Amino acid sequence: MAGNPDPSATTAFTEADAGAGSGADSGLTGAVAGAAVAGVAELSPVQRLAALQATVVAALAAVPLAGLSDVDSVAVLTVVEGLGRSVDAARVAVAAEVGGRAAWIAPGHSQPALPAALGCRDGLEVIVRATRISVREAKRRSRLGGFVSARIGVGVSLAPFYPAVAAALTGGDLGVEAAEVIVAGLEKISARVAPDDLHTAERALVACATGAVTEETRGLPGEGLAFGTDILRGIVLQWQARLDPDGTAPTEPVLEGRSTFGFGTLKDGLYPLRGGVTPELRGIMNVLFDTYLSARAAPAFPTPAEQARIDGGALVPGAEAADAAAGSFGGAGDDRTGGEKRADIVHAVFERAARDPGTPTLGGAAPTVLVHVNAADLQAGTGVGWIDGVQAPISLTSVTQRLCAGGSQTVLFGPNQEVLRLGLKERFFSRAQRRAIAARDGGCIIPGCTSPPHWAELHHVIPWWAGGLTDIDNGVMLCWFHHHYIDRDGWKIR
Length: 494
Fold this sequence. Notes:
By secondary structure, the chain is mainly alpha-helical. Helix content is 49%, strand content 9%.
């Protein structure tokens, strides 16, 4: 609010709000009824819209959704969506109109009259108050409206910047979401593309989104099909590359600078990932996932023979049959999603990088995850462990896995947390032992798992807490996934 508006301004806003149909249905209905009683033949635009709203509300309420057949329920869904597209188009148009009026300064005045009359700072606040939508949504509608609404020139009305989008949007054939995808995509290249080429792409994209057949799409695969917004985004990228093939290279340094990766605040036991990657890095990640993530439930790694077929183009990574070996983790017992499997692969990638001799040292030593656990809790099998620099605890299952694979070191604290004694590092397989076990096992020993040695961890067959020795005869190779669940899923190693 810009100061305290006078009562007349407040009253003016309230009446305008009621006339727009925002939360004042009873007032509008009363206006319609009053007009009918008075015998007025012609209703105002506001009254006609209010009457139409009442008709639509009544029609929707009369639809017995639960009693419809499957076919009819889908038909109703389609009709209602079409109705929504028309309403959304009107929302965009009216928001753009009100925003334009609120920005206009009359001759002899120093500021726009409309916001001041309603006690608002600007047109955006007028829209927000009249519609009770968020500032973000108001900006979204106004921005799109600026591209698809007619423009006012010097004494003449000009066509919208994107006339094909505007026509399809107004006709109810194109949704706001698809319109935004098209406009945003074409705006990125509009300064470097000839207007005729830009409008050719616009017409083709509108046809792809609505299923219309135009000169641009006639005879092409998918002619006459209406594609969803997700597919439409990909088609927009193809048009960008076609019309502006040199436009990507100059932006790569900028995108590289904007690439980022980090962690959000702990929520429900997980740290959400924040950031974005360049198309190049996304491609590298996709190849990595496709190579190591097969149709089996557990992450699978190509055998040398499979890798040779992949290199020769005879085998598509991830497309192999899902008939995992009997007794392997590739059966129906693994209900992890694709995202969970990818997370396991990322886990293995970072474990491998930490063990790589070429990885820089940290404080004079290889990157080492320090896990702290109370000795009494560990002996009792209860409690949790803690990792340096991480707020959330980890389970004792993860603690014992770390101890099994990486060893431990006992620290005795005094009553004031002073270190009284630092024990020797124990239960850690040496590099020589690892090489020997890798030569013997050739990778993860679980049937059906193809994880190679450099992706695997070393596991004590007889647990260290049961007196198992850290030597070659008591060590086997397991990938991270199988190592984590080896005890839970009942595997016995002899």
